[in-house]
Amino acid sequence: MKYLKPYYIIAILIGAWIFWFNSQGNRQPEEFFGFAENRDTEVNFNYPVVVKRIHVTEGGKVNEGALLFHLQRIQAQEELAEESFRISELQAESNALRAEKAGELKIKEAEYQMDLKAIDDKIDEISRELSYKKNTYSGIESLSGVNLDFSSMENELADLQQEKLMLDSLFLIQKTNLQEEMRLGVNPYISEIRRMEARKAFDEEQLVQEIEIRAPFNGLVGNIQCKEEEHIPSFKTLMNFYEPNPSMVKGFIHEDMILKVKVGDVLTIRSITNPDVGIKGTVSGLGSRIVEIPARLRRMPDFKTYGREVLINLPQTNALIQKEKVVIEVL
After folding, report:
1. What is the pLDDT of residues 6-43, one digit of tens each?
2. Handedness of CA 172, 175, 181, 182 (dihedral sign)
3. 269: β partners
4. What is the mean pLDDT of the chain?
5. Separation between Cα atoms, residue 101 and residue 218, nearest integer Å
6. pTM given for the model
7. Residue 94 to residues 10, 82, 217, 309: CA-CA distances in angstroms?
8. Mean of pLDDT values over 106-111
9. What does 16-63 look like in DSSP terms, one character per residue?
10. In a 3-state reduction of DSSP, which class is residue 181?
11. Which residues, other chains included, contact 278 with Cβ-Cβ below 8 Å and sequence gap of 6+?
12. For residue 155, what is the enclosing H or E element?
């Protein structure tokens, strides 16, 4: 049996390696398109302000903490009037509750006085009758030595005295309860009135409030949407503020390629205007559905194509600019 000579085996291995190397060298990365995005911060307030001074210009670079605007917050007279009206309203409600409980107390007191007078009248009547009988019978000689019994009248008087004590005790309890109801009922009104008065005093002190707006981070001034001495309503944007460099790329990968990209993959991003410089970015998010790819990011803009949104984080330092179109390479 004949064996292959060693140099034949070496030649075969070298040929296989050359074939693999050439095949790898000729492998072209697949591409899709996207655009660079800066973090965009909108400057606005939840209350009206007046722009007194603008310290920056559109497109200018500013450092963190740099002064952007000098504003004034002018408290509306309508708000102060509304606070005064609410205080008056609470005071009226508190007074009405006091009057209601005071009226109930007067009714209870009148009922108590009527019941008390009825008992006193009855006591006086029985007492007079008992006194009369005792005086009358004591003057009759024929009744001397006879044991006269007045216990029923005396017991009735004792019962009336006990009833009088119970009436006094009941009225005292009712009076105390009504006074406590009045105190507890008025307390919430008093607390709210004091809170509103404190707020009103604060707002009067802050009738004109000076405000300075400073840059939240190093960045670029975007659109300034106001001018000096302009009154700006609540929530209206004063300006846009951007990071100095794009922090992410938003791309759209064709639906035929969506399985080739996953979160965590490192992709190469190249500028259309400077394709020789590549930036490594990490896939941070993928869209949850297939959408139409924007015309600007299609290979053939006139033909609708569909794909999946891809979000890619960029290193803090890069040469891209806001909204710049880029090529994203997938190996």
Report:
1. 655 666 667 666 655 454 444 456 899 999 988 888 88
2. negative
3. 279, 328
4. 81
5. 65
6. 0.46
7. 106, 18, 52, 62
8. 86
9. HHHHHHHHHHTPPPEEEEEEEE--EEEE--SS-EEEEEE---TT-EE-
10. helix
11. 268, 269, 270, 329
12. helix 151-205
Q: Which of 244, 217, 222, 320 is nearest to 278 (CA)?
A: 320
Tell me if residue 237 falls in helix, strand or coil. coil
Q: Nearest to residue 186, comparing CAs of 51, 90, 274?
A: 90
Which amino acid makes up residue 249?
A: V
Structure tokens at 98: 């006091």
Joined tokens for residue 244: 């100095």
Residue type, 21: F
Q: Tell the residue number behind the tokens 């803090």, with chain if given.
A: 316
- For residues 104 and 171, the answer to whether their CB atoms sit within 8 Å is no
Q: Kindly indicate the confidence band of residue 279, based on its pLDDT and cuts at 50, 70 and 90.
A: very high
Do 51 and 210 meet the contact criterion of CB atoms below 8 Å apart?
A: no
pLDDT digit string, tens, across residues 70-84: 998 866 555 656 767
Distance, in Å, from the CA atom of 37 to the CA atom of 218, rounded to the nearest integer, reads 16
Amino acid at site 240: N
CA 258, CA 308: separation in Å to the nearest integer? 7
What is the phi/psi pair of residue 307, to 5°? -165, -160
